[in-house]
Task: structure prediction
Amino acid sequence: MGKDIEKIVLAYSGGLDTSVILAWLKETYGCPVVAYAADLGQGEELGGIREKALKTGADEVIIEDLREDFVKGYVWPALRANAIYESSYLLGTSLARPLIARGQIEAARRTGADAVSHGATGKGNDQVRFELAYMALEPGMRIVAPWREWGFRGREDLIDFARSKGIPVPVTKEKPYSSDRNLLHISFEGGILEDVWSEPPEDMFVLSVSPEKAPDRSTYVEITYREGDAVAVDGEAMTPAGLLAHLNDMGGANGVGRVDLVENRYVGMKSRGVYETPGGTILRAAHLAMESITLDREVMHIRDGLVPRYAEMIYYGYWFAPEREMLQQMIDLSQKRVSGVVRLKLYKGNCTVAGRKSEASLYHPDFATFEGDEVYNQKDAEGFIRLNGLRLKIARLLEKR
Result:
């Protein structure tokens, strides 16, 4: 099996699945395996990952710090579009996978590997995201998907295998849900979360306190935008990754950004995901507020009509597809005037707009006022309404014939 494969680059996280996969690849394919780990903001989860990979059988370990690349090149473009899947999910995992895949392909080129592998199951979205990215970036690369090859039926089988091989794993049969973390979010799925009637246990959450335990006093924050991207918080310029991490701390401390969603996977089934996205939740609210005073109505409405499709492209794994790139160019063009400052109030899980200002604002009190003004003749509205209502009048008159 797979004897013609010379070297494999595995997307390695150090968790249960990829730890078992690393040992299984060595045992099954009998070739060198490179463990590739991308630092996208997992924090302490990366601690000891090199040693663990080598102990589990990796012939080489590559760890790359891609935090700034992730936020600037993937999170920021999605936030410029206000991208959200099924009204709730801010696409944290969906945005990370194409970058990890790109890193794997580049690592394969450097190390002379002719195959890549991932830990996504045969029921999930990630297998599609990884493999579409591999195909777009390096069409001739071999792909090994263990969950579609081996005989393990579920994560309890993996736990048993890991224990038999002396591989330490971060999950137990008592708490078998899995998690995935990066700078944009942390997601939880599987195990006890598969009962959609049960509330997630409070001790599961990592990035946020519960709204009940959040401070009794509001926290105000000001975010500065330049052409659709956040560039400063409370007047302090920050790098993209630094800014998002800072807002994660602020939002999490105020219980902002928790989502419990039963979503529609690309492969055709529904699944439950619980997410913490404190910084992303704040930034989406701020960006919408900034656009409300700087973006032309028709440009906004056309863009908004395309957001569900754009979000689907990312969720389904088409980050490197020409249709996503085409939409991105249109979205980025719409952001040229989206600059200014938004003030938000964070309070017990809520994120509300408290103010917005911009040198490029299209809002002017002189035009919008209900008091007397010199820029709008209210009598003009009569003809406007008559013309817009004409088709309605004609349709009803014809019905009465």
